[in-house]
Specification:
The protein is mostly helical and about 375 residues long. It is built from twelve helices and two strands. The longest helix has 20 residues.
């Protein structure tokens, strides 16, 4: 009797540990989609219960009724219209109503405008929104190698919120900690940016703001070029972990499991991701960083930097933003550049015809380094 009670007590005491060990597991049934040759492991695994939430979160709002393109232009009627002045009054008003619904449905027009004088630029949000319209037009016109003709609108990132849910700031340097811990080298601290892994918790500053080579350790002995350190490898894995979580996919969405390092035989999504990394970097450099002096202190990070974008800003857990639904077809005024600033290509922006193999960065097709981009 005593032995039986002891056994039962032990079983009950082990239940919390068992639950903790299975906390990261997902109960069946799961669904898988094979998109490579059989036996290659090129499979995407999905949880149908999670997919229902993803579909709900990516519902596209109904477009506003179309407005006539004829009639007076906005720049001839309103004051201080710097970006969208060539739209008709009807088109301009329609877009403003849509942007209000996409970005500030609760705050209304006054989130960006002084109600006593709509031409006034005293609110920082108006200056930021003007810059964001230019950024949206730049994405749709100069980065088709990533967004194709699907494009993006303000709703793609904002989803009805004044500040997009997924943004990032450069984190402060990590404290060294106790002597027995030593310098943790910017890792081994659970962070949502790397799915709580022990990888470096800032995969964004090196690659989506700066232009560090994306490299991992060599795949053969004594490589003569493209040598990467363990630290570079860990930072690269951190970026890949972020991209996987941001898109809701696993590694085989972009990589050929037979050889992660080679481009030949890989899915076309890898080239799309290549351009996406460079697009995010260019947008952060050309549009977000210049707004540093515009944002108030309370809207900046602990180092005084502005919010920046990453893959999750648009994708938000979906393999394509809004699951591939295009809102741009209903708002073509966001598809083209409409002012003198925008007609000049942003620094470092490749043309839509630039293939991955001819891009300037040497990390495209390294000979002896496993590269995960």
């Amino acid at each position: 009797m005593i032995r039986r009670l002891a056994t039962q007590t032990l079983r009950w005491s082990l239940l919390p540990l068992l639950g903790l060990s299975l906390a990261a597991c997902e109960r069946p049934p799961m669904e898988s989609v094979q998109h490579g040759y059989r036996g290659t492991g090129m499979v995407q695994v999905y949880n149908p219960r999670v997919l229902d939430d993803v579909v709900e979160a990516n519902r596209v709002p109904e477009p506003q009724p179309a407005a006539p393109a004829d009639g007076p232009k906005a720049k001839d009627i309103y004051q201080n219209v710097q970006v969208l002045g060539d739209l008709s009054i009807g088109e301009f008003t329609r877009l403003m109503v849509s942007m209000t619904a996409w970005v500030s449905p609760d705050q209304g027009c006054n989130y960006c405008h002084n109600p006593a004088n709509f031409a006034d630029d005293s609110l920082y949000t108006k200056i930021v929104s003007r810059k964001m319209v230019q950024m949206t037009q730049t994405i749709n016109s100069q980065w088709k190698n990533h967004v194709s003709t699907t494009g993006v609108t303000c709703f793609t990132c904002h989803r009805g919120q004044p500040v997009p849910e997924h943004i990032w700031f450069t984190p402060a340097q990590q404290a060294m900690g106790a002597d027995f811990i030593g310098n943790k080298a910017g890792q081994n601290t659970p962070a949502a940016s790397v799915k709580l892994a022990s990888l470096p918790y800032d995969p964004f500053t090196p690659y989506l703001l700066k232009d560090e080579p994306i490299r991992v350790n060599a795949t053969r002995a004594l490589p003569t070029d493209h040598v990467a350190s363990i630290a570079s490898t860990e930072k690269t894995y951190a970026l890949m972990t972020h991209m996987s979580g941001a898109l809701g996919v696993n590694c085989t969405y972009c990589h050929n499991t037979q050889s992660f390092s080679t481009w030949e035989g890989g899915p076309p999504q890898r080239v799309t991701a290549y351009h996406g990394i460079r697009m995010a970097r260019t947008l952060n450099q050309a549009f977000m960083e210049p707004l540093t002096d515009v944002f108030p202190t309370e809207r900046k990070g602990e180092l005084g930097d502005v919010a920046k974008l990453n893959c999750a800003t648009c994708h938000q857990g979906a393999y394509k933003p809004l699951l591939g639904q295009s809102m741009l077809k209903d708002y073509p005024e966001l598809a083209v550049l409409r002012d003198a600033f925008a007609r000049a290509p942003a620094p470092g922006t490749p043309s839509a015809e630039t293939p991955a193999a001819t891009a300037t960065e040497a990390s495209v097709q390294p000979a002896a380094t496993e590269t995960r981009q």
